[in-house]
Amino acid sequence: MFAGKYEGLISDMLVLDKGLTGRYLPLAITFIPEEIFSTFEGLVSGVGR
Question: What is the reported pLDDT for 41?
Fold first, then answer.
């Protein structure tokens, strides 16, 4: 599904969009490892309180 697979690459981030909803809704998703997420977790957890 992804070209990096054939080259043996391991990405730190993976962003997918458009194909998730058949292009009817503007939706995207980002996959990141726990090490990167934990650096942002403190900033996000305080939103909306």
Answer: 66
Domain ranges of the chain: 3-45
Q: pTM of the entire structure?
A: 0.52
CA distance to 11, 21, 45, per residue, from 18 (Å): 20, 6, 27
* H-only helix segments in 1-49: 3-7, 34-45
**CA pseudo-torsion sign 18, 19, 24, 29:** negative
CB burial readout 16-32, b (16+ within 10 A) else e:
eeeeeeeeeeeeeeeee
> Do the Cβ atoms of 16 and 28 come closer than 8 Å?
yes
Q: Please check the confidence at residue 30 and state whether its pLDDT lies above 60.
A: yes
Q: Which secondary structure element, helix H or strand E, spans residue 30, and what is its range?
A: strand 28-31
